[in-house]
Fold:
Amino acid sequence: MLDDIDRRILRHLQSAPDITNSTLAERCGLSAAACWRRVEKMESAGIILGQEAVIDWQALGYSVEVSLRITLDKTQPRAFDEFIAAAREVPEVIEIQTFLGRVDTRLSVIARDMAQYQQVYRDRILTLPHIADIEALMHVARIKSDEVLPV
Structure:
């Protein structure tokens, strides 16, 4: 499992993912080689999945976000797999979540404006396979969006 030094490394990586290994090592009280080995070990163990650029889609002109709660027709044995595979192909779908309960999936869909959203909804969402019911929730505000874990 993780020790205090590993947790310290993770805290620093979460707050500054672009930190250099030498700076990370210095902040964690390690040699650069020891720090690198620990980071590689956590990557190999699947604890650190990678680093990514987080792009503000609103800064690129997307002003509409809609959350679609979808119930699938579960009378078809491959309904879930076929729906997910098709939903992955819709570029405007930025997130897919699955659930246990009445709602099977939630899609987050972005668009530049309502006209584009209506086009995406009609041409790409409603044509997804095995939809039994769909509920649209218009996104108003993001109050908290944080992927930092309490390590």
About this structure: The longest helix spans residues 32-44.
